[in-house]
Design a protein that fits this description.
The structure is a single chain. The chain is an alpha/beta fold and 198 residues long. It has one domain: Rossmann fold, CATH 3.40.50. It has helices spanning 20-32, 57-68, 89-99, 111-116, 123-129, 163-171, 184-190; strands spanning 6-13, 37-42, 74-77, 103-110, 132-135, 151-153. The chain has a 6-stranded parallel β-sheet with strand order 3-2-1-4-5-6, sandwiched between helices. Helix 2 links the parallel strand 2 (37-42) and strand 3. It is globular, with a radius of gyration of 17 Å. It comes from Muribaculum intestinale. Catalyzes the reversible adenylation of nicotinate mononucleotide (NaMN) to nicotinic acid adenine dinucleotide (NaAD). This is Probable nicotinate-nucleotide adenylyltransferase. Keywords: ATP-binding, NAD, Nucleotide-binding, Nucleotidyltransferase, Pyridine nucleotide biosynthesis, Transferase.
């Protein structure tokens, strides 16, 4: 009798901070898709966003843990924090496949990343070994997605929300409680992140 391998979606990001849009997409793909779980994978440094002013890794990791809480279909993954920097997705997927040989990992990206996916390190290897799930983003196209072997488009809800918007609003003194997962805004205020004031 063969054991069915667990299907895991990897949704990487700087999560600076994690916000409601991230959680809606991850939750939708985990619960309405073909995956058992979605792992929110914290990126210490995005090769395409070198000048991004990141909160330190420990704060971003803790905010992810608060956001995910005890949800059985989501998990926080910190594997990239122990990898050489900058980290590349193809290497992360290879490391996870070694660590969890009973799991099949699929990469989850937004349509914004789909448009530039050909510029990533080893995009063909990512698709052929792991597969790609693309979700819509306002203002970006998924053209060619359905016609590409190994790539699946999902109709996840589109949320026009960005971490930059959240950071700027917090720095301007706005209450962003409803834009963030429960507990994350309080953590930001308590730790004085993003120019917030208690």
């Amino acid at each position: 009798m063969s054991v069915q391998r667990k299907r895991i979606g990897i949704m990487g990001g700087s999560y600076n901070p994690v916000h409601a849009g991230h959680m809606i997409v991850a939750s939708y793909i985990a619960q309405w898709g073909v995956l058992g779980e979605v792992w929110l994978t914290l990126s210490p440094q995005n090769p395409f966003k070198r000048n991004l002013n990141l909160a330190d890794d420990a704060h971003r990791l803790e905010m992810l843990r608060i956001a995910v809480g005890s949800l059985p279909f989501l998990r926080v993954c910190d594997v990239e924090l122990s990898m050489p920097r900058p980290s590349y997705t193809v290497d992360t997927l290879a490391r996870l496949s070694e660590m969890y040989p009973d799991c099949d990992f699929r990469l989850i990206v937004g349509a914004d990343n789909w448009e530039s996916f050909g510029k990533w390190r080893s995009p063909d290897e990512i698709v052929s070994r792991h597969g790609l799930i693309v979700y819509p983003r306002p203002g970006y196209s998924t053209d060619g997605c359905e016609d590409t072997p190994g790539v699946t488009c999902v109709e996840a809800p589109q949320v026009e929300l960005s971490s930059t918007f959240i950071r700027d609003a917090i720095a301007a003194g706005r209450d962003m409680n409803f834009f963030l997962p429960p507990g994350v805004y309080q953590y930001i205020i308590e730790n004085g992140l993003y120019g917030s004031v208690q």
